[in-house]
Design a protein that fits this description.
By secondary structure, chain A is mainly α. In chain A, 66% of the residues lie in helices and 1% in strands. Chain A has two domains: 92 residues, Fumarate Reductase Iron-sulfur Protein, Chain B, domain 2 (Orthogonal Bundle), CATH 1.10.1060.10; 266 residues, no CATH class. Chain B is built from 19 helices and 30 strands. Classes of the chains: A mainly alpha (388), B alpha/beta (749).
């Protein structure tokens, strides 16, 4: 259902799609080859043919609220098979990138994160926060600086309590902002793409979690296996690293604070399971990240357009893993200057990644999940059966 | 027999003929039963040695008729052409016998002997040809001075012919002068081009061979190709001249927008046609008609009144590209104006796909597919269009300051529908009544034509039109051809087309017109029997003035005097023989193709007795599609029943029913007619021939009833060239029917 059946093209939106990587948009002549070749397009509600014409006609609200743009996992088979070079896969990617801006709260954050000129400023914010923590830890003691030439002790430079408190506050703020954006997204989907043929919210959520966990849809995109493995490694690597961080917070800060004897002191050493989680996660993320970076560098046809947002997200994510691993290695190697510099970078990147989450490509963890749940809940995400 | 014929027969043993047939026996049959003075064999008749042998015999023995018993008459035509007065007959042993029948079988041998017998019978009864060679006028008349006419004139003049060009407007150039720009002409097909028509006009006006009459129309064209008498009207009234052939390039007119009320025409001033947009561009730019303001949005409805059974059922081929062009006009003049193109299918054939792509790149041009279900004028002079069956999956509405109806082209040969007001209706009724009376009197169907050519032909003043008002020509097989000999149609009068297609069309039609004059000058027929020098002779003493020949000739060859006696015009004739098939008195004949000749052929065969259990079936096959399809079947070595005897005919329409009567009384068990498709998608090379044959079949069936014969004994079958695989089946089916009917009871009488 269109928002208004009187078509009134939004030229600004069309231009922004073209700028965000969908510059091939106007080549589409609606033959629907894309919807036919797509292995993920649902039987009764195929994409991306319809999303292409909605975008060509500048129907911004309608297309950005369409869960179908999130059902696409961008194997780009549509783009390689398109007889006109309209690259629907890239157009859908651009639409997803624009979704982060469109639903962003506050909206200026959405714009800022899509703007490469704002990157230094955006990095400066967590950097200043880190410097603040560092200064706070030194309490104005000049001699404290000399500590950096001695034993490597990250917790002394960046005390856990301060880091974690600021981190948690930031993340909570981010989650709050995300919720508002996602709430708007959900309502838009409900209003403009209604349906009732699905199993309902609970079953849809379970099905979605299962699907994400197994990377079922990625596996169905047959044209690019590298991406499936890359994403799978990063996905589980990130979860693993997240668990390690959470356990670290639990045992080093909470449990110690509670006065339990089960507490651990930082740094947690190898082969403590927490450490193992962290290392495993880091390695998985680095391998996965490398696979994906390599893939984007190759510039192959099925990779599609790589935009600023694609690169910045992929590089930050991989760098978080790399700096994380280096922090451990440099500490063991007793290279204090390098170790602290690296740790500082690590912290800045982690904060960048998580604080700005809903405004960057990372936002897909929320948007895509929500869109999948919605599509499943109304029964529009029923993949067609492969013919025997 | 009027002349003495001396027939020699030559049997080729090559191409497996000698393997399948007992050549010695066949030769004996020729020398013995057929009493041929010369009957020789050769293993490759078509090679130099074989040809020399024949030529030597012609010289030594004084042969004037040669029967070549070998391959199909459709191959090696040049090789077996001998100097006058020698006439060659090709007996098709290869495709009709050797390749399609059981080798060395008794029945195969009989077939070979029968075909030789028929060939000899034909030659013994064929008279010397008397080609009609006259001095003719080789001036080409071009009617219409648009792009098609101008190019036709230049092409004909370039071929060395004098040209007369008649244009009814004061200025040459036609529609092209009214277009600011035309579709892209060169790679990469992105930029609109200039029509270049001014240059074309000056070339025509500066050409010494072309005489231009502007502001003039044709009052009358009388006579026949090569010697038409034309009189002009209008500015050149009174001018008279001789012309040879005609190219009608009278062009098109826009479909009347008054019929497009359902698409909003007339509901608002802001609904215009594509032709009106072109006028606006020439007169100061595209402005909203209601207030003269720049439109902020312009919508185009494609196929407005086209591909619509209630309006023009066909696609006009250009309207999609016209809208793309006009959207470029608009976007260039007003960069803030949005253009909406609403289409059924967007058609931009060939390289114009690049043009379409280029327009599509413009983000201010919005294209979508849908069926228009409603057009309304809204407040503030906007027009609202509702579409169903859209790409959005639901009905959508487009609002625009201006709506352009991309409507189609109508040939100038289409006569306008009468006005629907009462007075006119009454008038028409009266007229119809009068016509009806006339019809009862004379049986004529005087056609109310477009009055462009004003031909003084008994069958109407203008080119006959069949589908949609276009002067008929089979647009795939025979472009430019019309139902009037040496009158060709070029450009948009023939089929909707754009300017560059019209230019190509003009060359095609011009070459046809020049070629026709060359052939007529040599006494030869034009398409499809190009080169044929035979002519129909009418034995007028026995004519009963029944007018069947004049009426049934598809080409309007015959006029008639007050008494109704046909007046022949050999140069209008295509030599199909439909008049011969039509004549109940059998007074029409060609020297080499007549009721008598075919009758002699079919009677020359010995029909086996009933006890022999060898049925005989005569098959009349059209030489245009049926015989070629049999040739193809033979090349694939499909098997044909050996009891059939095939006689090729020029057209099923030339088949005189007396042949059927003769065949049945001679003892043939059945007669099968195989011809071209007729009806809307006809494939008959003479348009109505196979249809006439079907009509005549009704009389035949009645005759069969009188004779108490089963009606299955005479059947007519349609066969297209690409249906060659069906040939054996068609014949076999007929043979089964004949088997069921049993032997002809008249056998042996």
């Amino acid at each position: 259902m269109l928002k208004a059946n009187i078509l009134n093209p939004d030229l600004e939106f069309i231009r922004s799609v073209k700028k965000a990587g969908g510059d091939s948009l106007s080549k589409c002549y609606q033959c629907a080859t894309c919807s036919v070749v797509c292995t993920l397009a649902p039987k009764d509600n195929p994409f991306p043919r319809k999303q292409m014409v909605m975008t060509q006609w500048g129907l911004k609200e309608d297309v950005l609220a369409d869960p179908a743009i999130w059902l696409c996992h961008q194997c780009n088979q549509c783009s390689t098979e398109c007889p006109r070079g309209a690259r629907p896969g890239d157009v859908l990617a651009a639409l997803r990138a624009l979704s982060f801006q469109h639903f962003a709260v506050p909206s200026f954050m959405g714009k800022a994160l899509a703007n490469r000129a704002a990157l230094p400023l955006l990095l400066l914010v967590p950097a200043l926060v880190m410097l603040g923590i560092l200064l706070g830890a030194s309490s104005g003691d000049i001699g404290y600086v000399f500590h950096f030439f001695g034993e490597v002790d990250y917790a002394r430079a960046f005390p856990h309590v301060a880091l974690d408190v600021i981190f948690v506050i930031g993340v909570l703020l981010m989650l709050g902002m995300s919720s508002i954006g996602l709430y708007r997204f959900w309502n838009s989907m409900k209003a403009l793409h209604p349906g009732s043929g699905g199993p309902g919210f609970i079953s849809a959520t379970i099905a979605t979690i299962f699907e994400i966990g197994t990377h079922d849809k990625f596996a169905k995109c047959e044209s690019d296996k590298k991406r499936y493995y890359g994403h799978l490694l990063i996905f589980y690597g990130f979860i693993s690293a997240l668990i390690a961080t959470a356990l670290n917070f639990l045992f080093v800060v909470i449990i110690k604070f509670l006065g339990s004897p089960w507490y651990l002191t930082s740094p947690i050493e190898f082969p403590n399971p927490v450490k193992l989680f962290g290392i495993a996660g880091g390695i998985a993320m680095i391998i996965g990240g490398w696979l994906l970076i390599q893939r984007r560098i190759s510039g192959d046809d099925e990779v599609g357009e790589s935009t600023y947002q694609d690169w910045v997200f992929l590089i930050v994510l991989t760098s978080v893993a790399v700096t994380g691993m280096l922090a451990w290695i440099l500490r063991i190697l007793h290279l204090p200057i390098l170790a602290y510099a690296d740790y500082f970078a690590h912290l800045v990147l982690v904060f960048y990644l998580l604080w700005y989450l809903p405004y960057t490509k990372f936002g897909h963890v929320f948007y895509r999940t929500l869109a999948l749940i919605y599509a499943k809940s109304i029964g529009t995400d029923t993949p067609r059966q492969k013919s025997a | 027999m009027a002349i003495e014929t001396k027939v020699g027969a030559y049997i080729c043993t090559g191409c497996d003929i000698g393997v399948a047939i007992d050549i010695e026996a066949l030769q004996k049959h020729g020398e013995g039963e057929l009493k041929l003075p010369v009957c020789k064999t050769h293993e490759h008749l078509c090679n130099a040695d074989g040809i020399k042998m024949i030529k030597d015999d012609i010289a030594a023995e004084g042969l004037n008729r040669v029967v070549i018993a070998g391959c199909s008459g459709r191959v090696k035509m040049e090789e077996f052409l001998f100097a006058d007065p020698v006439i060659t007959e090709r007996v098709c042993l290869r495709e009709h016998v050797a390749w399609v029948m059981e080798p060395n079988d008794e029945d195969t041998q009989m077939a070979a002997e029968d075909y030789l017998t028929m060939g000899v019978a034909k030659m013994r009864n064929t008279e010397d040809l008397e080609p009609l060679i006259e001095d003719i006028c080789k001036t080409v008349l071009v009617v219409g001075g648009g792009v098609s006419g101008l190019n036709s004139a230049l092409a004909a003049a370039g071929a060395g012919n004098d040209v007369v060009l008649v244009e009814k407007e004061e200025k040459l150039g036609g529609w092209a002068t009214k277009f600011k720009k035309v579709f892209p002409k060169v790679a990469p097909y992105k930029e609109l081009a200039d029509s270049g028509v001014e240059e074309l006009i000056s070339q025509v006006e500066g050409n010494a061979k072309i005489k231009v009459f502007k502001g003039s129309t044709i009052k009358k064209i009388e006579g026949e190709p090569g010697k038409f008498d034309m009189e002009l009207d209008g500015a050149s009234a009174g001018e008279k001249m001789k012309i040879g052939s005609v190219i009608q390039a009278s062009g098109w007119k826009p479909y009347d927008p008054e019929n497009l009320g359902h698409l909003g025409y007339g509901k608002s001033k802001n609904v215009v046609t594509n032709v009106q947009v072109e006028e606006m561009v020439s007169n100061g730019g595209i402005k909203r008609p209601s207030d003269g303001q720049i439109p902020q949005s312009v919508a185009f409805i494609q196929c407005a009144g086209s591909r619509d059974q209630d309006h023009l059922p066909y696609c006009s081929a250009v309207c999609c590209r016209v809208s793309l062009k006009q959207s470029m006009y608009i976007r260039e003049a007003y960069p803030d104006t949005k253009v909406y193109i609403l289409y059924k299918d967007l058609r931009s054939p060939g390289q114009y796909e690049m043009f379409y792509k280029n327009v599509q790149e413009d983000e201010g041009v919005f294209l979508t597919k849908g069926e228009v279900i409603r057009v309304d004028a809204k407040d503030g002079d906007t027009v609202e269009i509702e579409l169903e069956d859209t790409l959005f999956g639901e009905n959508v509405i487009v609002q625009a300051d201006m709506l352009v109806l991309a409507s189609g082209m109508v040939p100038t040969t289409l006569v306008d529908q009468p006005e629907e007001d009462e007075e006119a209706a009454a008038e028409v009724e009266a007229e119809e009544k009068k016509e009806g009376e006339e019809e009862a009197d004379t049986g004529a169907t005087a056609e109310v034509g477009a009055k462009i050519l004003n031909l003084a032909y008994r069958k109407g003043t203008d080119l006959p039109t069949l589908k949609y008002g276009f002067p008929d020509s089979h647009y795939i097989c025979f472009p430019y051809e019309t139902l009037r000999t040496a009158i060709y149609a070029a450009g948009a009068v023939r089929a909707p087309m754009d300017l560059s297609t019209a230019e190509n069309d003009a060359y095609g039609a011009a070459l046809k017109a020049v070629q026709a004059l060359e052939l007529i000058g040599q006494g030869k027929a034009v398409h499809p029997r190009a080169g044929d020098t035979s002519n129909p002779d009418f034995f007028m003493q026995r004519c009963t003035q029944c007018k069947r020949c004049t009426e049934e000739c598809p080409f309007g060859t015959l006029d008639e005097d007050e008494k109704g006696t046909p007046e022949t015009h050999p140069n209008r004739c295509r030599r199909c023989g439909i008049c011969m098939g039509a004549c109940p008195e059998r007074i029409v004949s060609f020297k080499n193709y007549s009721v008598h000749i075919i009758g002699e052929m079919l009677k020359s065969l010995e029909i086996p007795d009933e006890e022999d259990e060898k049925p005989r079936v005569l098959v009349f096959m059209c030489e245009n599609d049926a015989i070629p399809s049999l040739d193809i079947a033979a090349a694939h070595h499909l098997k044909i029943n050996p009891f059939v005897r095939i006689i090729p005919v020029r057209c099923l329409g030339s088949m005189n029913v007396v042949w059927i009567a003769d065949a049945l009384s001679t003892g043939y068990d059945g007669v099968l007619l195989i011809g071209c498709k007729h009806g809307d998608d006809y494939q008959c090379h003479y348009i109505t021939g196979s249809e006439l044959a079907n009509t005549r079949m009704e009389n035949v069936q009645e005759k069969l009833k009188q004779l108490v014969l089963e009606e299955e004994r005479v059947q007519i079958v349609e066969l297209a060239l690409n249906e060659w695989q069906k040939v054996p089946r068609v014949i076999e089916d007929f043979m089964e029917d004949i088997d069921t009917a049993g032997p002809n009871p008249y056998k042996g009488f």
